[in-house]
Amino acid sequence: MSAETTGVRPQLAVVVAGHVDHGKSTLVGRLLVETGNVPESKLEEIQQICNRQGRPLEYAYLLDALKDEQAQGITIERTRCFLRAPERDYLILDAPGHVEFIRNMVTGASRADAALLVIDAVEGVQENSRRHGFLLSMIGVSQIAVCVNKMDAVGYDPKVFETIRDRYSTFLRSIGVSPAGFIPVSAREGGNVVKPCRHMPWHGGPTVMEMMHGFHLPAERSLQPFRMPVQDVYRHAVDGIDHRMVVGRIESGNVRPGDRVVFLPSGKTATVRSLERFQQPPLRVANAGDSIGVTLDEQLYVVRGEIMSHPGKAAPQVGSRLQADVLWLGRSPLKLGQTCLLKLGNTEIPARIESILRSLDPATLETSEGGTAVERHQVAKCVIRLRRPIAFDVYDVVPETGRFVLVDNYVIAGGGIIRAILPEAVLSDTWQSHLTL
């Protein structure tokens, strides 16, 4: 069901990424101010803060609400804000650029439909410019526009812009990314943000706002195969008869009363009797994004973490041996044979790194075949063995149930996307004994 037929305004999620101090928050602040999305009182508040600090108006302060961020001039947490434009609404995700906060950047970008990647015209392409470009492509953000910021600091020199454009284009092509375009920008002065810059008549392309309007809306998740990870099962008695309600959030697709559904990995099937919401009438259809309760025509015993779907070719895969691209963020290397907790949807399961096929440094694109460890901030193609089979999707089929995180010593230390299911292999005696614990 489209936004047009429901009357709901379309919304596009855009992440703003790039190296530290290249002007991401300033760019977002300018966008908000020049599109009339900042109350005058808030702008006056920021102006007073800047006056006390003896500096000109910092548009970044509209985003960087934490005191540490204002004092250090860097974005630490992910910042979400909404921008309303005549054409559509935008969810803007201002991602941190410092290398220490790569985890925050990836989390912010994981739900984005498009990206603005900011590069400082003075400093040029830096390691996080390359790292963020690679990570955006890895997690499936295909619409990427590059903003060469601080053009006022280089006298609006077109040669500086062209040098950065040519160099970064070469890098993006090497990782299979075709950028939507390059825009010379002065975020502090407002040049080419919403209005064309009179100092850069040589730029015949779009402004940042026009580029955002050109990003296409993603294919609706309701049109994808139906997936609802089971969050819980509520039990209640009516007239002495035990009833169960399966609750969860629909990640993709849709479901209706009368639909035949299957729970994986258990393989149990039933027919949907009703779709319930708290203190609201039952639904005739539930779509991606809806949190619902499902009653069935049979009282099945299912558990948290199973995935409810439609049976047949559109159902998830089930297996215990996966090939995945893993981004490692732990302070200690991820070692061959190491066991972590893998979390996918509502499933949590011990997982062992069976082999490391290839590792890559996203900042330099240096690769190494095989190996016994994955260093911090590296991306590796790994074979992962799970304690037992689970339900999942290959990332390219249904991204929402094809991504996972890895927990090491109670801390999220990495994440990844599933590329393929692999045949089962004979387990070693050591891992076999671990599975029986």
SSE inventory with pairings:
Blueprint: H1 3-6, E1 11-18, H2 24-34, H3 40-53, H4 67-72, E2 79-84, E3 89-94, H5 102-109, E4 114-120, H6 127-138, E5 143-149, H7 158-174, E6 181-184, H8 208-214, E7 228-238, E8 241-249, E9 254-255, E10 260-264, E11 268-277, E12 280-283, E13 286-287, E14 291-296, E15 307-309, E16 317-328, E17 334-335, E18 339-344, E19 347-361, E20 366-369, E21 373-374, E22 379-392, E23 403-408, E24 411-421, H9 429-435
Parallel strand pairs: 1-3, 1-4, 4-5, 5-6
Antiparallel strand pairs: 2-3, 7-8, 7-15, 8-14, 9-13, 10-11, 10-15, 11-12, 11-14, 16-22, 16-24, 17-21, 18-19, 18-23, 19-20, 19-22, 23-24
Describe the structure.
Helix content is 20%, strand content 37%. The protein has nine helices and 24 strands. The strands form five sheets. It has a six-stranded mixed beta sheet with strand order 2-3-1-4-5-6, sandwiched between helices. It has a six-stranded antiparallel barrel with strand order 7-8-14-11-10-15. The protein has a six-stranded antiparallel β-barrel with strand order 16-22-19-18-23-24. The radius of gyration is 24 Å and the shape is globular.
Keyword list:
alpha+beta, Rossmann fold, Elongation Factor Tu (Ef-tu), domain 3, 6-stranded mixed sheet, 6-stranded antiparallel beta barrel, 20% helix, 37% strand, disordered N terminus, disordered C terminus
